Amino acid sequence: MNKILTISIAAYNAEKYIKKAIESCIISDKYINFIEVIIVNDGSNDMTLCIAQEYERKYPNIVRIINKENGGYGSTINNSIKMASGKYFKLLDADDWFDTNNLEYLMKILMTTEDDMILTDYLLYYGESKTSNHIKFMLAPNKCLKIENLDFRTNLLMHGICYKTEILKKNYIEISEHCFYTDMEYVISYLPYIKTVRYINKDIYIYKLDNAGQSVSVSGIKKHYQDSKKVLLKILNQDCSSKLQIYKYQEAQFAKKVIDNYMIGMPILKVREQIKEIDLYIKNKDFAVYRLMKNKSLFLMRISNYFSVYIEILYKSLRNLDDR
Prior knowledge:
Elements: E1 5-11, H1 18-23, H2 29-32, E2 35-42, H3 48-58, E3 63-68, H4 73-83, E4 88-93, E5 97-98, H5 100-110, E6 117-126, E7 131-135, E8 144-146, E9 161-164, H6 165-170, H7 182-190, E10 196-209, H8 218-236, H9 245-265, H10 268-285, H11 287-292, H12 296-303, H13 309-323
Parallel strand pairs: 1-2, 1-4, 2-3, 6-10
Antiparallel strand pairs: 4-9, 5-10, 6-7, 6-9, 8-10
Protein backbone atom coordinates (compact mmCIF):
# COMPACT_ATOMS: atom_id res chain seq x y z
CA MET A 1 0.00 0.00 0.00
CA ASN A 2 1.37 3.42 -0.97
CA LYS A 3 2.10 5.64 2.01
CA ILE A 4 0.65 9.15 2.03
CA LEU A 5 2.40 10.67 5.04
CA THR A 6 5.78 9.96 6.60
CA ILE A 7 6.14 11.21 10.18
CA SER A 8 9.69 11.50 11.47
CA ILE A 9 10.05 11.37 15.26
CA ALA A 10 13.46 12.46 16.52
CA ALA A 11 14.13 10.74 19.84
CA TYR A 12 16.99 11.17 22.28
CA ASN A 13 16.48 9.90 25.84
CA ALA A 14 12.74 10.33 25.38
CA GLU A 15 11.45 7.42 27.48
CA LYS A 16 9.19 9.68 29.58
CA TYR A 17 7.12 11.05 26.69
CA ILE A 18 7.70 9.21 23.42
CA LYS A 19 4.67 6.95 23.93
CA LYS A 20 2.38 9.98 23.78
CA ALA A 21 4.05 11.16 20.57
CA ILE A 22 3.71 7.75 18.87
CA GLU A 23 0.14 7.18 20.08
CA SER A 24 -0.88 10.54 18.63
CA CYS A 25 0.05 9.22 15.16
CA ILE A 26 -2.25 6.19 15.43
CA ILE A 27 -5.42 7.22 13.63
CA SER A 28 -8.48 5.17 12.61
CA ASP A 29 -8.25 1.93 10.64
CA LYS A 30 -9.52 3.74 7.55
CA TYR A 31 -6.29 5.75 7.22
CA ILE A 32 -3.72 4.16 9.52
CA ASN A 33 -2.10 2.04 6.80
CA PHE A 34 -1.38 5.16 4.75
CA ILE A 35 0.87 6.53 7.51
CA GLU A 36 4.53 5.72 8.00
CA VAL A 37 6.11 6.58 11.37
CA ILE A 38 9.91 6.64 11.37
CA ILE A 39 11.35 6.79 14.88
CA VAL A 40 14.98 7.88 14.82
CA ASN A 41 16.71 6.79 18.02
CA ASP A 42 19.59 9.25 18.15
CA GLY A 43 21.94 7.37 20.47
CA SER A 44 19.64 7.24 23.50
CA ASN A 45 20.96 5.54 26.63
CA ASP A 46 17.58 5.08 28.33
CA MET A 47 14.56 2.93 27.36
CA THR A 48 13.65 4.96 24.25
CA LEU A 49 14.69 2.23 21.80
CA CYS A 50 12.85 -0.50 23.73
CA ILE A 51 9.63 1.53 23.70
CA ALA A 52 10.01 2.21 19.96
CA GLN A 53 10.54 -1.51 19.33
CA GLU A 54 7.30 -2.32 21.19
CA TYR A 55 5.40 -0.14 18.73
CA GLU A 56 7.30 -1.57 15.78
CA ARG A 57 6.13 -5.05 16.80
CA LYS A 58 2.58 -3.84 17.38
CA TYR A 59 2.39 -1.90 14.08
CA PRO A 60 4.89 -3.64 11.75
CA ASN A 61 3.50 -2.03 8.60
CA ILE A 62 3.47 1.46 10.08
CA VAL A 63 6.35 1.97 12.51
CA ARG A 64 9.97 1.82 11.34
CA ILE A 65 13.07 2.42 13.46
CA ILE A 66 16.41 3.98 12.63
CA ASN A 67 18.85 3.19 15.43
CA LYS A 68 22.01 5.27 15.17
CA GLU A 69 24.79 6.97 17.08
CA ASN A 70 24.06 10.45 18.35
CA GLY A 71 24.29 13.02 15.56
CA GLY A 72 21.87 15.72 16.66
CA TYR A 73 18.51 16.81 15.30
CA GLY A 74 19.76 17.49 11.78
CA SER A 75 21.00 13.91 11.45
CA THR A 76 17.54 12.57 12.31
CA ILE A 77 16.02 14.67 9.51
CA ASN A 78 18.64 13.51 7.00
CA ASN A 79 18.14 9.83 7.81
CA SER A 80 14.34 10.08 7.76
CA ILE A 81 14.22 11.82 4.38
CA LYS A 82 16.37 9.07 2.87
CA MET A 83 14.07 6.34 4.23
CA ALA A 84 10.73 8.13 3.73
CA SER A 85 8.21 6.54 1.37
CA GLY A 86 5.18 8.76 2.06
CA LYS A 87 3.94 11.34 -0.42
CA TYR A 88 4.34 14.01 2.27
CA PHE A 89 6.88 14.39 5.08
CA LYS A 90 6.32 15.90 8.54
CA LEU A 91 8.52 16.26 11.60
CA LEU A 92 7.44 15.54 15.17
CA ASP A 93 9.61 16.00 18.25
CA ALA A 94 9.41 13.17 20.77
CA ASP A 95 8.18 15.50 23.53
CA ASP A 96 5.40 16.96 21.37
CA TRP A 97 2.31 15.30 19.90
CA PHE A 98 -0.42 15.59 17.28
CA ASP A 99 -4.12 16.23 17.68
CA THR A 100 -5.09 12.77 16.41
CA ASN A 101 -8.55 13.76 15.13
CA ASN A 102 -7.12 16.70 13.21
CA LEU A 103 -4.30 14.51 11.87
CA GLU A 104 -6.95 12.23 10.40
CA TYR A 105 -8.61 15.24 8.77
CA LEU A 106 -5.22 16.21 7.32
CA MET A 107 -4.83 12.71 5.91
CA LYS A 108 -8.10 13.08 3.98
CA ILE A 109 -6.68 16.20 2.32
CA LEU A 110 -3.29 14.65 1.60
CA MET A 111 -4.93 11.72 -0.17
CA THR A 112 -6.05 13.97 -3.01
CA THR A 113 -3.82 17.05 -3.10
CA GLU A 114 -0.51 17.43 -4.95
CA ASP A 115 0.62 20.79 -3.56
CA ASP A 116 4.28 21.21 -2.64
CA MET A 117 3.73 22.45 0.91
CA ILE A 118 0.87 22.00 3.33
CA LEU A 119 0.60 24.75 5.93
CA THR A 120 -1.45 24.03 9.06
CA ASP A 121 -2.35 25.72 12.30
CA TYR A 122 -0.65 24.50 15.46
CA LEU A 123 -0.98 24.86 19.20
CA LEU A 124 1.55 26.15 21.71
CA TYR A 125 1.01 24.31 25.00
CA TYR A 126 2.65 25.74 28.12
CA GLY A 127 3.27 22.80 30.43
CA GLU A 128 3.83 24.71 33.67
CA SER A 129 0.65 26.78 33.51
CA LYS A 130 -1.30 24.26 31.39
CA THR A 131 -2.43 27.05 29.09
CA SER A 132 -2.32 27.15 25.31
CA ASN A 133 -2.12 29.54 22.39
CA HIS A 134 -3.44 28.83 18.89
CA ILE A 135 -1.16 29.80 15.99
CA LYS A 136 -3.36 30.48 12.98
CA PHE A 137 -2.76 31.81 9.49
CA MET A 138 -4.99 34.35 7.75
CA LEU A 139 -5.42 32.39 4.54
CA ALA A 140 -8.27 30.86 2.57
CA PRO A 141 -8.47 27.23 3.74
CA ASN A 142 -8.01 24.23 1.47
CA LYS A 143 -7.18 26.20 -1.66
CA CYS A 144 -4.11 25.97 -3.85
CA LEU A 145 -1.98 29.11 -3.58
CA LYS A 146 1.14 30.05 -5.47
CA ILE A 147 4.01 30.55 -3.03
CA GLU A 148 4.63 34.07 -4.34
CA ASN A 149 1.03 35.00 -3.42
CA LEU A 150 1.55 34.00 0.21
CA ASP A 151 2.04 36.97 2.55
CA PHE A 152 5.83 37.18 2.75
CA ARG A 153 5.59 38.03 6.48
CA THR A 154 4.12 34.61 7.23
CA ASN A 155 6.26 33.10 9.97
CA LEU A 156 7.08 29.55 8.87
CA LEU A 157 8.11 27.01 11.52
CA MET A 158 8.38 23.26 11.20
CA HIS A 159 5.38 22.70 13.48
CA GLY A 160 3.01 24.01 10.80
CA ILE A 161 4.64 22.51 7.71
CA CYS A 162 4.42 19.36 5.59
CA TYR A 163 6.73 19.21 2.60
CA LYS A 164 6.20 16.96 -0.38
CA THR A 165 8.73 14.14 -0.01
CA GLU A 166 9.57 14.12 -3.71
CA ILE A 167 10.89 17.69 -3.40
CA LEU A 168 13.04 16.78 -0.39
CA LYS A 169 14.58 13.82 -2.19
CA LYS A 170 15.04 15.52 -5.57
CA ASN A 171 16.68 18.60 -4.02
CA TYR A 172 18.30 16.78 -1.09
CA ILE A 173 20.18 19.08 1.27
CA GLU A 174 22.34 17.66 4.05
CA ILE A 175 21.09 19.38 7.19
CA SER A 176 23.85 20.25 9.69
CA GLU A 177 24.64 17.56 12.24
CA HIS A 178 25.82 17.89 15.85
CA CYS A 179 24.26 21.34 15.76
CA PHE A 180 21.26 23.26 17.14
CA TYR A 181 18.79 25.40 15.12
CA THR A 182 18.54 22.75 12.40
CA ASP A 183 14.73 22.84 12.45
CA MET A 184 14.96 26.33 10.94
CA GLU A 185 17.68 25.21 8.55
CA TYR A 186 15.34 22.48 7.31
CA VAL A 187 12.37 24.83 6.80
CA ILE A 188 14.32 27.61 5.07
CA SER A 189 16.63 25.44 2.95
CA TYR A 190 13.82 23.69 1.07
CA LEU A 191 11.56 26.74 0.71
CA PRO A 192 13.07 27.88 -2.65
CA TYR A 193 11.81 24.65 -4.27
CA ILE A 194 8.18 25.19 -3.24
CA LYS A 195 5.79 26.44 -5.90
CA THR A 196 2.33 25.75 -4.42
CA VAL A 197 0.88 25.87 -0.91
CA ARG A 198 -2.36 24.60 0.61
CA TYR A 199 -3.55 25.84 4.00
CA ILE A 200 -5.48 23.61 6.41
CA ASN A 201 -7.13 25.52 9.26
CA LYS A 202 -6.78 22.79 11.89
CA ASP A 203 -4.38 22.53 14.83
CA ILE A 204 -2.33 19.47 13.89
CA TYR A 205 0.83 19.86 15.93
CA ILE A 206 0.90 20.42 19.72
CA TYR A 207 4.18 22.15 20.58
CA LYS A 208 5.01 21.83 24.28
CA LEU A 209 6.85 24.67 25.98
CA ASP A 210 7.97 24.71 29.60
CA ASN A 211 7.71 28.48 30.07
CA ALA A 212 5.32 30.84 28.30
CA GLY A 213 7.09 32.56 25.43
CA GLN A 214 10.37 30.71 25.83
CA SER A 215 11.26 27.65 23.74
CA VAL A 216 15.00 27.72 24.52
CA SER A 217 16.41 28.53 27.97
CA VAL A 218 18.96 31.32 28.49
CA SER A 219 21.51 28.69 29.54
CA GLY A 220 20.79 26.78 26.32
CA ILE A 221 21.31 29.90 24.21
CA LYS A 222 24.60 30.65 25.98
CA LYS A 223 25.76 27.11 25.28
CA HIS A 224 24.75 26.94 21.62
CA TYR A 225 24.63 30.55 20.32
CA GLN A 226 27.50 29.89 17.89
CA ASP A 227 25.46 27.12 16.25
CA SER A 228 22.90 29.70 15.15
CA LYS A 229 25.59 31.64 13.24
CA LYS A 230 26.87 28.43 11.65
CA VAL A 231 23.37 27.59 10.38
CA LEU A 232 22.73 31.16 9.18
CA LEU A 233 25.94 31.26 7.14
CA LYS A 234 25.09 27.91 5.58
CA ILE A 235 21.63 29.14 4.58
CA LEU A 236 22.96 32.42 3.17
CA ASN A 237 25.53 30.52 1.10
CA GLN A 238 23.08 27.95 -0.21
CA ASP A 239 23.42 27.46 -3.95
CA CYS A 240 20.02 28.88 -4.74
CA SER A 241 18.85 31.65 -7.04
CA SER A 242 15.47 32.18 -5.36
CA LYS A 243 14.37 35.78 -5.07
CA LEU A 244 11.10 34.92 -3.32
CA GLN A 245 10.40 37.58 -0.72
CA ILE A 246 8.98 35.02 1.70
CA TYR A 247 12.28 33.11 1.49
CA LYS A 248 14.29 36.28 2.15
CA TYR A 249 11.97 37.14 5.04
CA GLN A 250 12.55 33.77 6.74
CA GLU A 251 16.30 34.30 6.39
CA ALA A 252 15.96 37.79 7.87
CA GLN A 253 13.89 36.57 10.82
CA PHE A 254 16.47 33.92 11.59
CA ALA A 255 19.32 36.44 11.18
CA LYS A 256 17.70 38.66 13.83
CA LYS A 257 17.49 35.64 16.12
CA VAL A 258 21.21 35.00 15.62
CA ILE A 259 22.02 38.56 16.67
CA ASP A 260 19.77 38.21 19.73
CA ASN A 261 21.53 34.95 20.59
CA TYR A 262 24.93 36.63 20.42
CA MET A 263 23.77 39.41 22.74
CA ILE A 264 22.75 36.75 25.26
CA GLY A 265 25.58 34.26 24.80
CA MET A 266 28.69 36.16 23.71
CA PRO A 267 31.19 37.54 26.29
CA ILE A 268 30.42 41.26 26.54
CA LEU A 269 33.92 42.42 25.56
CA LYS A 270 33.63 40.70 22.18
CA VAL A 271 29.94 41.03 21.42
CA ARG A 272 29.98 44.38 19.57
CA GLU A 273 32.59 43.33 17.03
CA GLN A 274 30.92 39.95 16.47
CA ILE A 275 27.46 41.42 15.88
CA LYS A 276 28.94 44.07 13.60
CA GLU A 277 30.76 41.36 11.64
CA ILE A 278 27.61 39.25 11.26
CA ASP A 279 25.40 42.18 10.24
CA LEU A 280 27.87 43.55 7.67
CA TYR A 281 28.40 40.06 6.25
CA ILE A 282 24.65 39.80 5.65
CA LYS A 283 24.62 43.27 4.09
CA ASN A 284 27.35 42.32 1.62
CA LYS A 285 26.05 38.81 0.97
CA ASP A 286 22.35 39.56 0.44
CA PHE A 287 21.14 43.14 0.78
CA ALA A 288 17.50 42.02 0.46
CA VAL A 289 17.84 40.01 3.67
CA TYR A 290 19.70 42.87 5.39
CA ARG A 291 16.92 45.30 4.47
CA LEU A 292 14.21 42.97 5.83
CA MET A 293 15.92 42.75 9.23
CA LYS A 294 13.80 45.56 10.63
CA ASN A 295 13.47 46.42 14.30
CA LYS A 296 14.25 49.44 16.47
CA SER A 297 17.23 47.96 18.33
CA LEU A 298 18.96 46.85 15.13
CA PHE A 299 18.37 50.26 13.55
CA LEU A 300 20.03 51.91 16.57
CA MET A 301 22.96 49.51 16.37
CA ARG A 302 23.59 50.34 12.74
CA ILE A 303 23.48 54.12 13.16
CA SER A 304 25.66 53.99 16.31
CA ASN A 305 28.36 51.79 14.75
CA TYR A 306 26.95 48.99 16.95
CA PHE A 307 27.84 50.67 20.27
CA SER A 308 24.15 50.66 21.24
CA VAL A 309 24.44 46.89 21.63
CA TYR A 310 25.64 47.51 25.19
CA ILE A 311 22.49 49.47 25.99
CA GLU A 312 20.39 46.67 24.52
CA ILE A 313 22.21 44.05 26.63
CA LEU A 314 21.70 46.15 29.78
CA TYR A 315 18.01 46.57 28.95
CA LYS A 316 17.56 42.81 28.43
CA SER A 317 19.37 42.08 31.72
CA LEU A 318 17.15 44.46 33.68
CA ARG A 319 14.03 43.05 32.06
CA ASN A 320 15.08 39.51 33.01
CA LEU A 321 15.53 40.66 36.62
CA ASP A 322 12.02 42.13 36.62
CA ASP A 323 10.59 38.85 35.32
CA ARG A 324 12.00 36.86 38.26
